[in-house]
Amino acid sequence: xxFGPFLLLALMEGLxxxxxxxxxxxxxxxxxxxxRVVNVAHGEFFMLGAVLAWFVSVSxxxxxxxxxxxxxxxxxxxxxxxxxxxxxLVLKRLNYAPEPTIVATIGLLYILQQAAxxxxxxxxxPVPAPFSFRIQLPWFGYAGYxxxxxxxxxxxxxxxxxxxxxxxxGLIMRATQQDRDTARAFGINVDRVYxxxxxxxxxxxxxxxxxxVPIRQAHYLMxxxxxLLSFIxxxxxxxxxxxxxxxxxxxxxxxxxxISTFFAPTLAKILATLxxxxxxxxxxxxxxxxxxx
Amino acid sequence: xxxxxxxxxxYGAVRVLNDLSLSVAEHEVLCVMGRNGAGKSTMxxxxxxAVPVSAGTITLDGARIDRLPAHEVPRQGIGYVPQGRRLxxxxxxxxxxxxxxxxxxxxxxxxxxxxxxxxxxRTRLGQRARTLSGxxxxxxxxxxxxxLEPKVLLLDEPTEGLQPSMIAHIRETVVALRSTGVATxxxxxxxxxxxxxxxxxxxxxxxxxxxxxxxSGLARDAAQFAKYVGI
Lengths: 293, 231
Prior knowledge:
The complex is a heterodimer of chains A (about 290) and B (about 230). Chain A has about 290 residues and is an all-alpha fold. Chain A has eleven helices and two strands, in the order H-H-H-H-E-E-H-H-H-H-H-H-H. Chain A has a single domain (about 5-280), classed as ABC transporter involved in vitamin B12 uptake, BtuC (Orthogonal Bundle). Chain A has helices at about 5-35, 40-60, 65-90, 100-120, 145-165, 170-180, 180-185, 190-215, 225-235, 240-260, 265-280, and strands spanning about 135, 140-145. Chain A has a two-stranded antiparallel sheet. The model of chain A has no long low-confidence stretch (mean pLDDT about 95). Helices cover about 35% and strands about 30% of the residues of chain B. Chain B has helices at about 40-50, 75, 95-100, 105-115, 120, 135-145, 165-180, 190-195, 215-220, 220-230; strands at about 1-10, 15-25, 30-35, 55-60, 65, 80, 150-155, 185, 200-205, 210-215. In chain B, helix 7 links the parallel strand 7 (about 150-155) and strand 8. The model of chain B has no long low-confidence stretch (mean pLDDT about 90).
C-alpha cells in the first residue's frame, strides 16, 4: 500500500482510539474536576464495563444487536451503581481528602480486578459486534463498526456537554465544582452530587468499554492501558477541563494510531508519556487547565 | 425567631465559639460587632451548618436546625451572604440566581421580585459573576440569598471594600427587608453602617456575646465601640 492510504488507515485507527479515549478520560476528568478526587480505579470501571458486556452477550438470548443494546444500557448503569456505592462507603468517609482518596482508589482497583479474576477468569473473551459491514475504499476495506464507535462516542460526548451546560443537574455540578460549601448553603446536597458524578464518571468509562470490546475482547487486566492513557490525556488537556480532555484525546489517539501503524505501539506510549513530562514541566496546568491561584 | 442558646463550635480541636447565646426577632436587624477573631463569621457558619456545633442549640421558630445537614438549613428559611461574597465566579449572573432558586417552587415570581430590588443585575444576566465590579458582586450575593425567600438573612461584612453609593444601596435594601418581616443578622465593622440600620448591637469577645444594647443608645456612647471593637 502507498504512503497516502497507509496514513489514512493509521488516522482512522487513531480516530477510533481517540473516540474511546475521549469518553474514558472525560469520566476521569469529570470526577477530578468536580470532586477533586484522583480516581486510580477508573481503568477498572472500564474493565468492568467490558467484562459485564461479555456476561450480557452470553446471557441474553437472541441476535447479537439485541444483546449489545442491552449491554450498552445495563453495563454503565451497573458500573455506575458500583461506583456510587464505593463513593458512599469509602470516599465520603474520607471527606474526599486528596491523599487518602488516592490510596483508597488504589485499594478499589485491586478489589475490582481480583473480583473480575474470580468471577470472569483469566482468559480474554470475545464479545460479538452488533453488526458487521465493511466500507470499501479505493485502497482498502474498513470495518464499519469502528466508524459507528466513533459516531456513538461523539454523540455521547455531546450529551455529556449538553448535560453539563444546559441542564439543572449540570448547573448543580458546576456550582459544586466551584465551591461546595457555598453550594450547600443554597440547598445543594453535595454528597448526592458527588455520588452522582462518581457514578457518571465510571459509567462513561464503562460505556466506552462496551463500545470497544467487540474490537478488543474482554480481559480482567484490560484496565491498565485506559487508565494510563486517560491520565495522559487529562494532564495534557488540563485536569477538570472537558474541552482540554477532548483535544488531548484527539491528539493522543491520532498520534497513537499513526505511530503504532508506522513504527510500534510501545513507541506511541513512550512518546505520549514524554509529552506529559514536557507539559508538566512547561505548562503544569495543561493546555486548557487553569493555573492554581 | 432565630435563637442560639449556649453554642460551642469550632474547627476540629480548635474551639472558636464558647457558650454563645443570641436571638433575633422578626422585623429586627441585629448587628454583631467584635475584633478580628472574635468568632463573628464562625457564628454565621455555625448557623448555616458549615461549622459543626458541639454543644448548645440553634432554633428557628422553635424548631431545632443545628442537627440538620447543611444543605437542609437554607430550606428552613436561612439566607446567607458570606464574607468575600463567595459567588460562583465562572457561572453567569442568571445561573447564580438560578442556584439561589434551587429550593423554590415558584422560582419565576421570586426571581422577578429579587431583580426588582437590584435592577442593575437584570442588565448583567449573561455576564460571568467574576467579571462584575465589587459592588455588583455584592448585589448578586445578596440577590442570590434573597432567592431563598429567607425568614432570617445572615450578612457577613457586606459593605467591605465598597464605594459609598453601593453601601447606601445595601443599607436601603436591609431596611426594606426589615419592613417585610425578615430578621437580619449583620456582621459589620463600620460603626456608621451599623448605626444606620441596626435595632440592636451585640458585641462579641472570645467567641461569645458579652453585651447586647439598643442601637439608639449606642449612638450617643462611642466608648462602647472603642471598648469592644477598638475604634
